[in-house]
Structure formats: structure tokens, C-alpha cells
Design a protein that fits this description.
Low-confidence stretches: none
Distance between the termini: 9 Å
Structural class: alpha+beta
CATH architecture: 4-Layer Sandwich
Number of domains: 1
CATH topology: Deoxyribonuclease I, Chain A
CATH class: Alpha Beta
Length: 253
Amino acid sequence: MRIMSFNLLCGGADKRDWPYRTPLAVRTIYNADPDTFGVQEAHINWMRALTACLPAYDYVGVGRDDGAEKGEFSAVFYKKDKFDLLDSGSFWLSETPEKPGKGWDAACIRICSWAKLREKESGKVFVHLNTHLDHVGLVAMQKGAELIAKRGREISGEYPAFFTGDFNVTPDSAPCKAVLDGGFADCRTAAAVTDTGITWHNLQPITPEFTGAVIDYVFARGDVKVDRFAVIRDKIDGELPSDHYPVYADVEF
């Protein structure tokens, strides 16, 4: 299977605003053909556009601000003809994870959404969790990563789990270590064939002054073989679809 993560960039200025980039993002996803994918910075208009333009997929997730449609989604999309949805949910990265609200020293409300899926052909079950960690609060980043790792173990139980997201921190950071300590492996380092290049480029040229960063991830838990990890740098009609490169992992379990 192919598990993908894609920060769509919620807005943008002028010709880089989200309505102009929607066809670019849709074609990027269509070309990558993931079995499941998690999105970040997807407001309700993004969600409506993706569901309209990618009819092969359904999704689980809610807006982080109100648990309905307000604020950014960290939704999980899945091929609806290939998988049965067994269970799903969302929780907030805070001291009160069952209701919307900021956690610890976070600048924004943050959420994790998840889907428990069964492949129709094989009957195999797995869980896909997806999030966008805070970009300011160091405690919120750490506690959020720890909470998702813990919840991921509880939700998946005996089944494999995949955890995608924009972490806003690099692989050597404490939040990433918390996920690894929680029993997940970074597919970037676990893959037989991998790509260690940057994932955030901010729609800027890479120069000695601006080098970008690796902040987008696919993690895996359980008896999972990671064949390949890749960063998608393809332009569509000469333009990039977002300020992040999407990433994906090809996995077997």
C-alpha cells in the first residue's frame, strides 16, 4: 500500500492562493495514487474541493476549531472501493482531548484524526492517524506527539498503524523521539529505498540562506516492511502545488 502525507497550505497570496492551486494539488494526489493519505491545513473549502475532484476517496475528520467545519482539518482520505471503514474519530492535542481547545503553550488548536480500515480483498486491518503539530509551543509539540503515540497504540491494538503529519520539527527533535519511543518507526529511515531531502520549501528557491527543512513524516507501527519512502517534487504546469512537498511510504504488512 501507499501511505501519503500532504500539507496543502491553507491560503496563499494572489496566484498562489488556494483556489489557483487546487487543480495542482488534485493532480499531484491523483498521480501519486495513494491508498490512504493525510492532509494538513485543509479548511472546509479545501475539503469540498478534494471530495469533488477525487471521487474515488472518502475521508474522516472534522474542523479543529469546533469539531465540525470550522478551522483546519487533519483528515484521513482512503479509497472507498478498496477499504471498509471500521471505526474513526478525532481528538485534540490538549489536556482535554475529547473537546476542541488549545493545549499547553500552543499557538493554535491542534487535532488528530484517525481511521481504522479493513482492506476488502485481504481482510487485513490497519489504522491511519494524521495530525499537524503546533508551530510555536515547544511543550505542545512534545505533549501532542506523546499523546498521539499513546492513542495510536490504544486504537490500533494488535493491528499495524501509520501516523502521518506535518510536525514542524526535524527528525532529530524531541517530539519525533517521543513517537519513536512510543513504538513507531520513521519510514524515512526504515525504508529499503529512501529520500532524505527537504519537505518544506516555503515556495522559495533553495539557497545558502534558505535551505528548507524536513518536517513531514510517515511513521509505521507493527510488523510492517517499508519498501520505499519518497518526496514528491514534481511541478504541475510549471508550478508547485503547496509550500510543502508531499511524502509517501510504500509499505507491506
